[in-house]
């Protein structure tokens, strides 16, 4: 019974990690797209940076 519970716990941990990593990949893609849009649509005057930092 204990090995079965350990295997089920391992499956749940791996499923949770995979789900979290997939969400992190989507967040990274969204941030990259927003950065590219800001880079393309930057103001023409000044230093050319669209961000303040």
Automatic annotation (TrEMBL):
The chain crosses the membrane at residues 26-43. InterPro entries: Lmo0937-like. Keywords: Membrane, Transmembrane, Transmembrane helix. It holds the Pfam family DUF5670. This is Hydrophobic protein.
């Amino acid at each position: 019974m204990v090995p079965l519970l350990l295997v089920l716990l391992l499956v749940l941990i791996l499923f949770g990690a995979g789900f979290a990593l997939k969400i992190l990949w989507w967040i990274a893609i969204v941030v990259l797209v927003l950065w590219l849009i800001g880079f393309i649509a930057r103001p023409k005057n000044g230093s050319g940076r669209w961000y303040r930092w």
